[in-house]
Design a protein that fits this description.
Layout: H1 8-29, H2 37-45, H3 63-72, E1 74-78, H4 99-107, H5 119-128, E2 133-139, H6 165-175, E3 179-184, H7 189-195, H8 220-234, E4 240-243, H9 248-257, E5 262-263, E6 285-289, H10 305-317, E7 321-326, H11 336-352, E8 366-367, E9 370-375, E10 380-386, E11 399-404, E12 407-408, E13 414-417, E14 424-429, E15 432-438, E16 444-447, H12 458-461, E17 464-467, E18 471-477, E19 480-481
Parallel strand pairs: 1-2, 1-7, 2-3, 3-4, 4-5, 6-7
Antiparallel strand pairs: 8-9, 9-10, 10-18, 11-15, 12-19, 13-18, 14-15, 16-17
Length: 483
Amino acid sequence: MRKNPPSFLSVILITLTMVAVGAFISITSCKPPESEKPVAAAAAAKPRIPLIPEDQVRLSNDPQKTELFRDAGLGLFIHWGPNSQVGTEISWPLYNASDDFIKKYYALADTFNPTRFDPAEWARLAKLAGMAYVVFTTKHHDGFCLFDTAYSDFKITKTPYGRDITAQIVEAFRREGILVGLYYSPADFRYQYETGLRTGHIYEPDFSAAAPFGPLQKNFLEYEQGQIEELLSRYGDVFLLWFDGKCEPLKKHAWRVKQDVFISRGEIPTPEQTIPGQPMDYAWESCMTTSWQWSYQPNPDVRTIKEVLANLIRIRARGGNMLLNVGPRPDGRISPPDENLLRELGLWMMLNGEAIHGVRPWHITNEGDIWFTCRRSDNTIYAFVNLEYGLDGIKAPAGARFTLKSVKTTPETQISVLSQEGGCEWKEDESGLHITVSRLQTIQFIKTPPLKPGSKRAAEFGAFTWGPDWPIVVKMTKVKPAE
């Protein structure tokens, strides 16, 4: 059978195809070796944002920010993530886990949808509780990002919820006048897992790891430096960063991005669930949970308000800050036990917050069970005193008498009970400063032990009395240390 000669259109198509194939061969022949890919990608992506030159950056916290941090005194810590759906501790179950468990843990992000999350309500509750700053977990050791990062697809905007939670947090808390702090874990188990660099431990990062990772195919240090730049440039005035783990390269980079950002963990002591035994006249922070787990736990054993206040008073008397942690529910609400505790704390802070914010240690921390803080600007001392109270002779009246041997009055001295009119008498002699205080305010009604038979006050007060049995604060102005 005779073949027809190729048409003019066919010749053109053949020619274009040959040109395209030649171009493809030319392009692929110019590709760098696989080992050079991360370097090439990194070079193409820079510069990201302006950085302070290395020889000009100050590698320490700004002194004014340090004093502002110490003035704050009380902060709210928030640990949250997809793991809250099953009530496990955040990140740590990945330690020594099987591949099957790891896949199930990471699959929790596919169903994380906190539709009842209300950042404004969180912020209002924090302010009510007397919190002066917040520290929010933007990325924990598991690698899940609660912010919209360009460096990882394992993030909140890839979940059914689909919105940047960190952006909502910083806006809501800033609106309430609360200083914004962002927690960031240098360790990233997701990076280890996806790049085959598993070390068996989730806490210690290897900043020299060069395996490409994430949508931008960065090596580990560039990946984390990029996220620090995002956090410090996209979310307004970030007051502090909280690095949970080895962080020297990231700390330096953070100061190159924002010289005055205060770095808490990574630069100052931050003990967990403990209080140092001695006062320290520099910035430090004790991190405490409301229960015994950082992340949400169903049916938790929540600390009592007495425990929280005892910790807070001792921490402030010794010069530290208390960072009190809550773990929100998977639907976005603060759990009722945590909310109740924060509201109780809010009532006490409403009465006595003056003795917690803006104070420093006095020359001694305590006389027995009476603890002190000091406002140095005007020589004001605050004494935290526990009252025993009851009715009809049962440790009545609601008051206490005590003697302070470490305090000396001056002609200008005034002594009062914070937030109360009256109810305070004092005199001084060679044996010390003798103070008598009475609880005159009706703050709450609480149930008491049974009254004595035939009590004259039983008909009037029934089984209730004034409460609660919390420390009151005695304010002493224009005083000085006793010699």
